[in-house]
Amino acid sequence: MTEIAGWVAPAATMIAAMMTAANLGARVTGWGFIVFTVGSIGWIMVAIGTGQNNLLWSNGFLTLVNLIGIWRWLGRQARYEDGGAAATRRSAAVARVPTLFPIGRLGGATVTGKDGAAIGTVIEAMMQCAGTGLAYLVVSEGGVGGLGERLHALSPQDVRFSEDGVHCDLDAAALAARPVLEADNWPASL
């Protein structure tokens, strides 16, 4: 049994790390914590079978942390995402088009260009303190996994929000032609 656990534990831990690092929403992250729990239990079995108390105690603690992650992401955060989605659907039913968009969905949202193709990803939304309006979106394009990406600011007039995401009237070339923001030095306004 220790030998099987010795294979399951690292495999589950690696898969769970990829699931949570991908940040694909509350449910995927929550399931990542379930897979982490399987890995922790596997490591506990290895620890018991090999007499490694340090491995036993650290993974006993990690199992508790993983249970908190499951509660947070599959319980609380998933309910919040469902609430935002329900408000979007209700606003669409009343006005025939969605009039609400959950701000929590902005980070990581794909920006679709005028031709329907994905042209970038929303990194952050900057809100105005006075007036509570959207100041601008920071959108990345190019690169892989953050390496080689270029950041650009889009004003609220450049974008539209719908139930299925963020849209703009630019194409990939027009977005790439926008001024590039430094990763650690964004403007106070556009």
UniProtKB/TrEMBL annotation:
<dbReference type="Pfam" id="PF05239">
    <property type="entry name" value="PRC"/>
</dbReference>
<dbReference type="InterPro" id="IPR011033">
    <property type="entry name" value="PRC_barrel-like_sf"/>
</dbReference>
<feature type="transmembrane region" description="Helical">
    <location>
        <begin position="55"/>
        <end position="74"/>
    </location>
</feature>
<feature type="domain" description="PRC-barrel">
    <location>
        <begin position="101"/>
        <end position="172"/>
    </location>
</feature>
<dbReference type="InterPro" id="IPR027275">
    <property type="entry name" value="PRC-brl_dom"/>
</dbReference>
<feature type="transmembrane region" description="Helical">
    <location>
        <begin position="6"/>
        <end position="24"/>
    </location>
</feature>
<protein>
    <recommendedName>
        <fullName>PRC-barrel domain-containing protein</fullName>
    </recommendedName>
</protein>
<keyword id="KW-0812">Transmembrane</keyword>
<keyword id="KW-1133">Transmembrane helix</keyword>
<keyword id="KW-0472">Membrane</keyword>
<feature type="transmembrane region" description="Helical">
    <location>
        <begin position="31"/>
        <end position="49"/>
    </location>
</feature>
